[in-house]
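Input:
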Amino acid sequence: MDEVLTFDAFQPGASMGRATEVIDAEVLESWRQLYPWDAATADELPPGLATVLLMRAYMRILTQRPPGNIHARQHLELLAAIAPGEEVTTEIECVGKELKRERRYVELACRARGKAGRPLFDGRMTIIWAA
Amino acid sequence: METVLDTLKPVALTVDRQAILAYARITGDFNPIHVDPEFATSTPLGGVIAHGTLSLNLIWQSLAATFGSQAMRGAAIDVRFTKPVREDDRVEAGGRRSTNEPGRFDVWVKNQDGIAVIEGTATLFAAKEGER
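Output:
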């Protein structure tokens, strides 16, 4: 098993990697069952699925997470509607880390681009890192 | 005078075990703090908490229900997850137009006890243009 990614290993300014995700029919159906009032149209996904794409990219890029991390803060700016079936590539960069009141805060910036590199969303998330 | 579009339409959800597991599958986030009661009980949080973004999505839905999906282009949200959402909590998203900046709303998600579990702001360019 690979080593767990610890707080000490984060380097502000370093890219953590990128991942490409597609919201497929199965995910859309699960979304519809969870939030029946928030359906996709033929042309665009509900805006909340940008958050899902971000979280899926985070899961794929930072694979060796310690158990028990906690999402503390989220900023997200939607730049364009995401089309159903569109390939979305999200890059995540470490932009800061801070030890505060015995808690380890890691700040990650993300940029998501879609078809032909069109900007889809930018975000910033703060995670309380567990180890 | 407060108008209809000064207050966001509320959107609510009961965050039961089924919803948490469904959201874990949607996001691929199987952090044991969300899905493993034994592990979660051993942490300082003392039990399972729901994914923060499961409830955050209700804010997007509240904004879209109020202004329409077209208004979401260029929209931004900046929130803090202030309290954990526990299994079987009933959470409701809402918001009110801020007096501080055009197009800005104070937004929140509150649980069944009226305690804010998410707090922050949302900015909509469409709402900003409507104010002029």
